[in-house]
Amino acid sequence: MIARLSLNKNYVIYSDDCDCNSRNSFGISIFWSDKFFDKIYLDTKIVSQYSETNNHQELYYPLFYSNLAAAYEYIVGKSILKAGLEAEIYSPIKGLHFYPISKDFVETDVKGEWLGNGLNVFAALKLGNAYLRLSFENILGQYYYRVRNYPMLDRVFHLSVTWSFND
User: What is this structure's pTM?
Assistant: First the structure.
């Protein structure tokens, strides 16, 4: 298990409409990973982060975030296949209201709901010197975001091939 603690005092985020004397953030994260039956991997990450401006809590980032991944590994000789699922959950954050005419975001007190990431599927294959990685993210097509104003993409497929020559 790995635990990490962070504290940022008086950091600056550029904003025309902020009368900021101080901005602070505090966070803690815990990561746990284990292997069962020599083939099944479980990874868990729990993060809590708190931010404030002028001693008033902001909800720019989720106060709570959690990630759970499970994978199965199959080995034949030097070839390896690892495939699994990943799910995430985010606590409510305050979003900004966007005015398209002025292209401006305005602070709002509206707090969102608990969000999930829509489930990710991934696989990695090693065949000799070649590696094939693929993932299909947000397979449920859920609208969610990790940081306000930056919604995550809807149903994304990633494919990567790596092959080293002359090894």
Answer: 0.69
